[in-house]
């Protein structure tokens, strides 16, 4: 299984993520909390800015996303990422 590095410049930290859980859950497991509501891509509460990297979605999320935004709850990480809350 591929392991990706997810960097968060605002806290000067990074975590490893392998897509076995959501990116939101991985961050929570490392003590990094972020707002969420539905955990299903409907509400958009977990939206963050994608600075570098690529993600995909198994199903198109219903939440509205601006270019350069991703949903932590339902994206699939495709490369190392840099994100900003």
Q: Could you characterize the architecture of this molecule?
A:
The longest helix has 7 residues, at 23-29. The chain has a single domain (4-84), classed as Ubiquitin-like (UB roll) (Roll). With 85 residues, the chain is mostly beta strands. The chain has one helix spanning 23-29, and strands at 4-8, 13-17, 47-52, 55-57, 69-71, 75-77, 81-84. The protein contains one helix and seven strands. The termini are far apart. It is globular and about 30 Å long. The model has no long low-confidence stretch (mean pLDDT 97). The strands form two sheets. The protein has a five-stranded mixed sheet with strand order 2-1-7-3-5, covered by helices on one side. Strands 4-6 form a two-stranded antiparallel sheet. InterPro entries: 2Fe-2S_ferredoxin-like_sf (IPR036010), 2Fe-2S_ferredoxin-type (IPR001041), 2Fe2S_fd_BS (IPR006058), Beta-grasp_dom_sf (IPR012675).
